[in-house]
Every structure is written in C-alpha cells, then in structure tokens.
C-alpha cells in the first residue's frame, strides 16, 4: 500500500468517526442546485510525507499528476490569475467574464516586494535564499494578503509554504523540506491533488537548487468531507490500495522557470477506477 493511501484512509476515518458536522450552521458554499453544502470536519490535521522514500500519490483512485502540476505552475511559475492560462477547467466557476480569479494565488506570487537585495517576488526570493542562504529560517511564502481579500473570488486555501534545509549526515546534497499551511481542505476533491502539487514543487525547487527532496508536512486547519461526498469517500477507502508508483522529474531541467507539466512522470501507476463527475461545492 502506498504511504499516501494509508495517510488518506486514516484521515478520512478520523474525520468520519471523530469529526463534527456543520449541518444547520450558516455555511458559505452551495451545491449546483442551491442547497447548502455542509461538511463533516476535523480541526487541525497534520500529515507528514517523506518524499525521499515515496511520492505521495493516491492509488485508491487516480490523481491527475499533469493537471495538478499544470495548476501548480500556473500559480508558482506563470504567476497567472487568469483561467485562460490553465489547461483544465477546474477554476472556471470562480472566474469573471475575462477569466480572472482576482488578486488570488498567481497574482500574489507575481507581486514584487522591496528587499535589501532589490525588488523580487516571493518565488524569486525563495530561490535566491535557497541558493545563497540555504540555512535561513526565514524562507517562506504567504499569499493570504488581507488588504486584497476583497478582490479575490475565492480566498487562498493553500496559502503558505515554509522551506527548511537540513544537512543529513553522510549525504552529498542538502535536503529541502517544507511545510504547507492550508486553512481549508475539500478532502475528496483536492487533498491528494494539493499534496501532489506541493510535492512536485519541492522536487522542482530541490532540483533547481541542487538539493534533494525531503519531507513535506501538510498542516490543515479545517479538513472536511462534504455531505454529498460521504458515500463516495466510504466506498473509496474500502478499496484495495496498490504500491506507490515511481516519480521522476526530467533531470535536464535545472531552472525552475523551464519546467513544464510534461517534465513529471510516473512509472507503474496502478490505481482503482476513477470516480467520474465528483460534485464540487461552489
Ligand atoms: N469546493 C471546492 N473544492 C475544491 O477542491 C476547490 C474549490 N472548491 N474551489 C477552487 C479550487 C478548484 N479545485 C478543484 C476543482 C475540481 C477538481 C476536480 O474536479 N478534480 C478531478 C480531476 C480533474 C482533472 O483530471 O483535471 C478529480 O477527479 O478529482 C479538483 C480541484 C480545488 N478547489
Ligand atoms: O487548493 C484548494 C482550493 C480550494 N479547496 C477547497 C476547500 C474548501 O472546500 C473550498 C473553499 O471554501 P472556503 O469556504 O473558502 O474555505 O475549496 C481545496 O481543498 N484546495
């Protein structure tokens, strides 16, 4: 069984058995038919993934690695807030008539800030520090910008990455670790999607900075299963999991800005059947 499957199954069981229901509360999201989208939720879930051991992709059902990477690069590399720059349609419901999702995600990543070394955006600041001052405890991004929230169609969910470099005894290369902070998580639609994205990011930044990928710690404040997802999750976690596939990044790419979604590959990715048309709460 892949480690990601085990963590996912344990988290879902914990939410279903020990979580609290939001039924009857004043909730924001709606189903397509206008009904309120209630959840069963657990406050404060922390999952640890060791990227040096396994790539944390679910085998219970297929996670679309290339689409997930495409969305990650849309935010972190293209720094775009327009759905026209995305190959999938997952953000269409939150875009305006011109395709913009407002001052969220990619917009914030592209904002340049004044530092002692000059003007840089948050990504370039991270890359600069990883290359020039890797043992700094100040390498992080944060896109939860209060002054701009009123111009975002959906507030950032995965909003901060904290990078931390360790020197493992006997290893030639430094190890790049990270903590992903997420305030809200739709467990069925996006948990493994987000885990896979930020694992790819750690692998890409490690390769671009001549390091090795270490741990990814995912801290989730509100980990929820939407009411209409409960039977789907129950069936999903009863399935037979398989071993984790082998993940590779194109070894020729050394510049973070040169990666494309075609540079990520999986070998032996055996999965359970896909669940078609998962309803998404808007
Ligand atoms: N309620 C909700 N859940 C989310 O996960 C979510 C939002 N809203 N709003 C903004 C984005 C959009 N996200 C989404 C939306 C849809 C899928 C989705 O349909 N995923 C399919 C595969 C998509 C593909 O193959 O490209 C799946 O099977 O999980 C994933 C993430 C994540 N975010
Ligand atoms: O990357 C993402 C983006 C969004 N989500 C989910 C988490 C929630 O179910 C909704 C957002 O609703 P809020 O009321 O703003 O919390 O989208 C996700 O899991 N991952």
TrEMBL record:
Keyword hit for Transferase: yes
GO cellular component, as recorded: cytosol
EC number: 2.1.1.45
Pfam short name (any one): Thymidylat_synt
SUPFAM superfamilies (UniProt xref): Thymidylate synthase/dCMP hydroxymethylase
Binding site for dUMP: 137-138, 183-186, 194, 224-226
Location of the active site: 157 (nucleophile)
Thymidylate synthase/dCMP hydroxymethylase domain ranges (all copies): 7-277
Complexes and interactors: Homodimer.
Name this polypeptide is given: Thymidylate synthase
Protein source organism: Kineothrix alysoides
